[in-house]
Write a structure and sequence with these properties.
Blueprint (H helix, E strand, L loop, with lengths): L14 H13 L7 H14 L3 E5 L2 H11 L7 E5 L4 H9 L3 E5 L10 H13 L6 E3 L10 H11 L4 E3 L7 E2 L6 E2 L6 E5 L12 E5 L2 H11 L22 H11 L2 H19 L5 E3 L6 E2 L5 E5 L1 H4 L3 H10 L5 E2 L15 E2 L2 H9 E4 L7 H15 L1
Parallel strand pairs: 2-3, 2-4, 3-14, 5-8
Antiparallel strand pairs: 1-9, 6-7, 6-11, 8-9, 10-12, 12-15, 13-15
Helix pairs in contact: 1-8, 2-8, 3-4, 3-7, 5-6, 11-13
Length: 380
């Protein structure tokens, strides 16, 4: 057995990142803000198809600022996906608002538009209106925005697209396709170390409204008033990205398409190699877009396969292969116990049977084969 550790999704760095990072280092412009921050914002906005962007220290901070820009605060309700990473719900809680969690649909594992529409209607009948809807583009593919956006427009509720996991994905087909991050009134990206491109840690907030992004930049730099001394009339945050990390991000962005191709190739390999196993199925690629396959996820039917998800995961761990369960839904998390859940059974099932396989764009062919061999060992 190889002693090499196979990670779930490790950073994939190259020469461009090193060159730009050294440029920032040699300039001694290492603190937050700087020419690479400005350039990274411009380049990412152009790639996504949004007019403006603010580079920030994390995707979580971008979500928090996005909600603040919409005026979300105590007493408000925000509707979001239950099947997501905790950052989505945490950012809602930072504002003092209450999250309401919406179940997944099975075609993409993303927020169920039918249930979302039912909850918007239920609130309207009570004379209430959600302060925002935050759909999550899960595991590399967009939610069903053709269904979601008209519902939110009719209810006059703004949308913040959480595209933290889906940079490089598209929604729609042909000339009408839009990139993940282009679909909400506001949208956010993440460049965490395990994402398809990384700045070590970082995120971005995007909007077509210049005033919104200027306000976000102000709040993200401790809300310092324009004065020769340090004066503050508003509570602010330390959310800006450093020039060093933005330089890395610019290098990474140059290779985004090849990183998407590599992850899709991983997904295709796993599908072909494991297709014969009864009781093992893959996260579907929805008909309305193209996924990055940021993580390749499988569902295990223990009755058909003969082993459960945990038996496979622990066997892979013993073989020095990192695999993780699908996100535990927010409505099952202790900290959000008592929050309203609409549906919940689909997300619960996906969590109990779902497993994320190693999916990094720097996986070697022999790495993927080791993963497959290990799965076949435990199943056999």
């Amino acid at each position: 057995m190889s002693d090499k550790r196979i990670w779930l999704s490790s950073p994939h760095m190259g020469a461009d990142e090193r060159e730009l990072l050294l440029d920032a280092f040699d300039s001694n412009w290492v603190a937050p803000l700087g020419p690479h921050v400005d350039a990274f914002e411009k380049e990412m906005a152009e790639y996504i198809g949004k007019a403006h962007a603010a580079a920030l220290s994390a995707g979580t901070g971008a979500l928090h600022l996005g909600l603040e820009l919409l005026g979300v605060g105590p007493g408000d309700t925000v509707l979001t996906s239950t099947l997501t990473f905790a950052a989505t719900a945490n950012a809602i809680s930072y504002t003092g608002a209450t999250p309401v969690f919406i179940d997944s649909e099975r075609e993409s594992w993303n927020i169920d538009p039918a249930l979302l529409g039912e909850e918007l209607d239920t609130m309207a009948r009570r004379g209430q209106r959600a302060a925002a809807v935050v759909p999550v583009d899960l595991y590399g593919q967009c939610a069903d925005y053709d269904a979601i956006l008209p519902l939110c427009a009719e209810a006059e509720v703004p949308v913040i697209e959480d595209a933290a996991e889906a940079l490089g994905a598209t929604h729609g087909v042909g000339d009408g396709a839009q990139r993940a991050g282009a679909l909400g009134d506001l949208s956010i990206l993440s460049f965490n170390g395990n994402k398809i491109i990384t700045t070590s840690g970082g995120g971005m907030l995007l909007s077509d409204d210049a005033a919104q992004i200027e306000r976000a930049r102000f709040l993200a730099t401790q809300a310092r008033d324009p004065a020769p001394h340090y004066q503050h009339s508003t509570i602010g945050y330390n959310y800006r990205m450093s020039n060093l990390l933005a330089a890395v991000g610019r290098g990474q962005l140059r290779h985004l398409e090849s990183r998407v191709d590599a992850r899709r190739a991983n997904n295709a390999f796993y599908r072909q190699a494991l297709a014969h196993l009864p009781g093992l199925s893959f996260m579907p690629e929805a008909s309305w877009g193209r996924s990055t396959c940021w993580l390749t996820c499988v569902l295990i039917d223990p009755n058909a396969l003969g082993v459960n998800r945990e038996a496979i995961r622990t066997h892979l761990m013993e073989k020095q292969i990192e695999a993780r369960p699908v996100w535990k839904p927010m409505h099952l998390q202790p900290i959000f116990n008592g929050c309203r859940i609409v549906g919940g059974g689909v997300a619960k099932d996906l969590f109990e049977r779902g497993l994320c396989l190693p999916s990094g764009s720097n996986l070697e062919p022999e790495d993927r084969q080791r993963v497959v061999d290990a799965i076949l060992e435990v199943v056999g």
